[in-house]
Amino acid sequence: MMKENMIFEHEHPFSLIDLWSEQLRREEESEEDEEENDDVLIANQDFQCLCSRCGEEINWYHRYYYSCCHCSDYSVHKFCAELPQRLEDVCEVGHALDLTQSTFWMGNWNCKICGRYHKSGDLCYCCDRCYFYFDVNCGTKVLQKNVIHHPIHKHPLSCISKQLLAKCDACGKEHKGNFYHCSICLWSKMIHSDCAFLPQKLQIQDTTNDVFSHIHHLTLAYSFPIDDQSSKNWPRCRVCHNEFIGQSNFWMYKCEKCRYYTHLDCVTSRDEPFLSILKSPGTSSKNYKDDEHLDLLHLPFPDPSYSILKHLFSMEKGLSTLEVSNKNTYKAQGIIHQHPLILEDITNPTFSRIKPISYHDPMKRIQLLCDGCVRPITSGPIYVCDSEGQCNFVLHEWCSRLPAKLNGHFAHQQHTLILHSKAPPRKFFGVFECDICKLHCNGFAYCCMDCNNCIIDIHCAFLPKEITHTSHPNHLLSLVNHESLHDTCRMCGYFYPNLSFDCRTCNDFRLHVKCALFIPETTRNKCDKHPMKLSYFPIENHKSDYFCEVCERELNPEKPFYHCHECMQSMHTACAPSILQYETYDEYPTGVYEFVNVKFGGRYENTKVHPHPLSFVQGIEDDGHCASNDCHYYDNRLQFRMIFKCLNCKFAVHYDCCERMSN
User: Which of 97, 184, 627, 653 could disulfide-link to 125, CB 3.0 to 4.6 Å?
Assistant: First the structure.
């Protein structure tokens, strides 16, 4: 309680209020629930009223204020209430100024310092000898009494008496206006009032008009140290998707439990920065018209069995590249398969087959891959080999519709590309590296037979010029050929000196062709009984570190990964295709499984290499080291790599070593 005459213009006594008291008490009581503490903080930080002396707002950062014990609408800043009755040596001639209510001779008046308009009777410091006067607000600044209590510093921060044009140490941007600093110690930072009064906690949906949302309140943080950024895998702002590197000492908002981080300007929608955000991914603003892009390909594909070939050819009418031999049996034109093929369709009740087909089922560890596109076959219609031997050739019906020739292809415009069921003989065991996506492949290929300088897999042969992708919604991504190293791919984080899909609106978003085509939206794996969905950011309310259920290594949630929200399990996108045995994943998961376009299996027989038949597989740890005396791998390990191994003995060699030994 304070005495009545301390605020002479009001007749009632006042009580001192501490807006932080309830919050501090709860923080000391460890048994209190964190969410309840948040509610108290939010309620107090939302408090605001006007000071009846200076007319400025009283809020949470002022911490202390006086409230009239009888009047519900009369409150005063603590520093305004404690202003001295007289100021010495303030005016230019050295007169004393008294705190008083403006008199009739002043009428309506303007402060001599800031120029603010006031009505007759408003409180001011006045010299009745030289008629110099200024309002209470300027008086608190002149005396450096206009202070706030801020968690960033142990001392109260004083408002600098003059407006400045300077850089704010909170956001790193230049501001004009009032700045706060410490007048007690050597703390050198200056905080602009726009940043100084930012709420300690907020909900991003409230500050961005529901353009962005998060289930938890975001907390104001006063730095983002490099070590913390590194331990969190260098996260990006959830609004603008730019990094925090180089901004470790600036303020930001975060939800630590969900690894949700945003820049100050992004989360508060302040000024020009937010205008650019409205044009960025994640908003409702589209940079194209649907009626002008009727055949636009929307990626990612729904599941691993889907492909660009299914998208283009499954519903087309016309001749297949297969030639009809009788009602149900087909034979190839020489480039497809050496045996008769039969079209199997389980929806046809009249169809029967001696050798039953087990469709691809990761949950049962059954793998059935198309010999053309090397995508999983989960249903018919499909072509199957009708021979009585051990040939297990299978082909999607739509893969039989591929054109035999491609003229003027953008990757090799000077010559015609010819469809081959296997890479030319110069490619050992039919395995080649696609000139576009750079992935190994042993499926169908389009090759130049004139110069032998171009070979591409059948997926890359039909790349569209434009796509959309859920990782960058509402913006067109255009196919661009980079002749040198350019920006990193947003999916895998690696540089790539070749074709990519780029956003020409944002100029900083890029997807490798392989990441766009071969990472589906959902996948299934034996490690989890539910379908796992592709996620581009850390999961809300995830209470532990991230580990891949397949390879059991740490997982970076700032890069796309698969996650089951029911079981709270995750896995690398590169590990997802590993369904036969858990050791056949990538050594260094980089987005797309390295052998996503390779169908392992098949026998290789060459007595120059080994007296027994060899199987084409991906190496695991038990396979040990390469048996070649001329192995070019630095560690000779077979794990993770394409190898040929003998099932009768322990002989095994790398694919490259086997090729050299066979020559």
Answer: 97
**pLDDT at residue 27, rounded to an integer:** 63
Whose structure tokens read 């209190």?
A: 32
Query: Which residues of the chain carry a pLDDT beneath 70?
Result: 1-6, 22-23, 25-44, 89-90, 92-93, 104-105, 270-284, 315-336, 345-355, 389, 483-486, 496-497, 579-589
Exposed / middle / buried, residue 654 (Cβ in 10 Å: 0-12, 13-18, 19+)? buried
- Own/partner long-range contacts of 357-360 (Cβ < 8 Å, ≥24 apart): 357/382, 357/384, 357/394, 360/305
d(CA 255, CA 40): 18
| Cβ neighbour number for residue 396 with a 10 Å cutoff | 25
Those residues whose C-beta lies under 8 Å from the C-beta of residue 84, and which sit 6 or more positions away, are 99, 143
Question: How much is the pLDDT for 167?
Answer: 93
- Indicate the domain borders of the chain: 147-197, 201-278, 297-313+335-395, 602-662
pLDDT at 317: 40
Helices (H), 232-324: 264-268, 271-277, 308-313
Residues with Cβ < 8 Å from 201, sequence gap 6 or more? 38, 41, 42, 45, 217, 218, 219, 220
Taking alpha carbons only, the member of 428, 438, 436, 442 closest to residue 460 is 436
Q: Which helix (H) or strand (E) holds 502?
A: strand 499-502
Measure the CA dihedral 69/71/72/73, to 10°. Answer: -130
Enter the pTM of the model: 0.78
Pairing of strands 97-101, 123-126: antiparallel
Q: How far apart are CA 456 and CA 441, in angstroms?
A: 9
Q: Note whether 574 and 421 are within 8 A (CB).
A: no
Cβ–Cβ under 8 Å, residues 40 and 19: no
138, 161 in Cβ contact below 8 A? yes
Give the C-alpha separation, 124 to 101, whole Å. Answer: 6
Measured CA to CA in angstroms, residue 48 lies from 43, 60, 67 at distances of 10, 8, 12
Residue type, 359: Y
How many other β-carbons are positioned within 10 Å of the β-carbon of residue 90?
17
pLDDT of 355 reads 59
Structure tokens at 247: 């901004």
Alpha-carbon distance 145 to 193, whole Å? 15
